[in-house]
Input
Amino acid sequence: MEIFLQQLVNGLSLGAIYALIALGYTLVYGVLRFINFAHGDVLMIGSYAGFYIALELSQQLGATISYQIAFLMLMGSMLVCAGIGVLIELLAYRPLRNHPKLTVLITSIGVSLLLSYGGQILFGAQPRPFPELIHASQLHITKNLTISSSHLIVLLVTAVILLALRFIVMKTRFGMAVRALSMNPQAASLMGVNPNAVISWTFALGSALAGAAGILYSMTIQSIEPLMGTMPGIKAFIAAVLGGIGSIPGAALGGVLMGLVETFVGGSSFSSYRDAIAFGLLILILLLKPAGLLGKAQAEKV
Amino acid sequence: MIHARCNSPLMANFYRFRCLPIAFGFPQNTIYAMKRYITVITLALLAIAFGGCKKAASLLPPNEIKVGEFTSLTGVNATFGQSANNGTQIALQEINAAGGVLGKNLNIIVDDTQSKAGETSTIVHKLISQDHVVALLGEIASVRSLEAAPIAQENKIPMISPASTNEKVTQAGDYIFRICFIDSFQGKVMSKFARSIGVKHVAILTDTSKDYSVGLTDSFKKDFTANGGLIVSEQSYSGGDKDFGPQLTAIKAQNPEAIFLPDYYTEAPLIMRQARQLGIDVPFMGTDGWDSPELLTVGGNAVEGSYFSNHFSQENASPNVQRFVKNYKDKYGSAPDGIAALGYDSVYILADAIKRAGSTDPVKLRDAIAGTQNFDGVTGKITLDANRNPMKSAVVIRVQDHSFRYLETIDP
Output
């Protein structure tokens, strides 16, 4: 029972990170109807941004990592990623706006490779230790059930970000524009929504989430390298599809589910089949509910 | 008409009598034209002559012995590949400074496998068919040595792997050798060591995507359980995984006294850091794959107090070890690791075999390498057995104060 609860905590924490990344996929899909495969690599950029900010700040202040620096890292990384996201959209996707969606999709794979292998040249291929943001400590609940400080931080930060996102999408004019655009782009622009501006802001928002996820993910795995974004990127994409792509609560649910399945399989005696089992489950769910758990089946307009 | 005559070989001699055309009443401009033709022909003849010379020179036995080295200078195992190459370069420098082998200089042609599967076979084919090397040195990782071995065997070119410890490598054929100890021995060493420090309950964490890790797990488990030890938990992951929380949580619940982690320096420190974060404070026990300064830089405090088996310790006082350590430090500014020492020994073993064979004929060279006995290398006394594996001792290293400290030597 204790092990079950412990794995539950591990799984929720990993799932929270997947949820953050999956939201980026879903937001972009909502307004542009395409999968931005470079999203996982934006996460990697976010991790490196955080790494360099921590390095610079701890040198400037002569201090070790503290909560203030950790907070600045998170904010800095989100800002850098937002900028990168807007730039990618402007340079790579906007010129292809009226081309078939497949063209944009392939371009996004190209951007993904450019970022990860460009990262190898820029940052070096060697993995680097990620600074310990906070002193590792454990909250002992029972003998075998401990919640480590990093799990707690991952869960707290994700909860705050999800609430903020819900507020932005549901209560602000920008959020209304995003929802309008995802419902019907033509009608939205007739109603005075500037699609290009909204798309740029959506990319900024989605990429900022990837930046935050990058910091949390590096904090969990404790090292960074230029190809680190690929696997969580793919898994979060699958989480987004699982929850119903285009649906924000769906992405969050899919992410958490994915994290839980992976963790429970990983802790069992089938641990080396963990990806196979996680992906097998996904195929099963999609067979039963093709639009995803919370997605609405839409008839394709011809 | 002039044209035809100028083209004939006899016309070359005509140059000597260039005054003759005037005497025969040829117009002046025709003479200039003929002169030009003659110059062209002379140059052409010269070119053929020199070209011929060059060709003739290459037919003579070259004044060097070509050896191919394929290793991972870049990619995920870059520090291993670079270390091995540093070691071979030191040996090469020493051997050539002392007059070479059989009166010829050794020449090592180094190619990078980029730590990639597929790349290795391309490079080995190139070294054999294009560079015509007499022997091959490489690879570090067992998985890539296994790729190269059948090619070397098929072409009957002796191959010496400095550091691939998986059993199957030398089973590829009688032209494949290695000078590091094998996994079954290394697993036994760590099992013996664990028992010697009073550890009875061990958990194992294996990377199922690496032949290296799986082989070591098998041999450790066999020896440890046969001697009354208990494996309380066996968990696995596969290459590229980053989050080890689930496996470590399952291990922690079984309260092991030590955790056996046979993997490379790339994953091992990450796993140890994540373990410390989960509150696991027992020592980890690893193998020669840990031997890289990166274990210390990435692992930090998490790797303190852990142990691993290795080929070599620079704290060994024997004169040839100290000479190697000194030359290495002079050239590269840092202390050699185990892989560098193996790279160094691999060149010396090959040079020794070429000397004993008295030629670079592949069959004679193969027999000479197979006959290596009590070779006094920096990684210990090396005798190759009938399976072309060395019989030698291993050392156990402890991570202490952010450095690798020699603990003890364990014999086979």
User: Anything to note?
Assistant: The mean pLDDT of chain A is 88. Strands of chain A lie at 128-129, 138-140, 146-148, 223-224.
